[in-house]
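In these records, each integer encodes one residue's backbone shape. Here is one protein:

___
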Amino acid sequence: MKISKKNFPKISSEKALMIVVGVHHAKICLIDEGVVQDIAEVIVKTPQYSDREGQTQHRSSSGTMHGSGWPYERNEEHEQKTFVTALSNELKKIKLSSNNIFLFAASRTVEAVKNLISKTLSIPIQHTFVGNYTKYENHKLLAMVKKLRDKEIIRKKIIISSPDALKVLKKSEKVRKIIGKN
């Protein structure tokens, strides 16, 4: 997908990775020279059990019934480990040099994915968006990045352009130095 230079002027000129992670689905995209390319996709399917498949029962010598293995309850911890391992394998295959990473991750997987990225890639995460964005199209994700960047630029302009705000910031810095919180 080509990135419009009119709508995304800064994003179209940079080189970055866009990693979109859900609970069982992830996609990795490369932003380079005004083009967004899907590099890899990881999907780990959850087991679907029918009726009482996987449950075992046996009778003890005293005549009581014992059962084990309840198929209706998923082992979410095991599923997440499997997914993170599969995502790790895909990230290790990526040998690209990019300036930064835009991370879109579900709340359950954010910390695990951040740790994984810091271990496997030496690229800083510039922006993190928490939520399940795996079904969003790439241009909507880029619009979210642009909107966040525009907010940051406006904040910086307000701080710099307002003399009253600048005075308050200087006073607060002096107070922090006196207190020892720097």
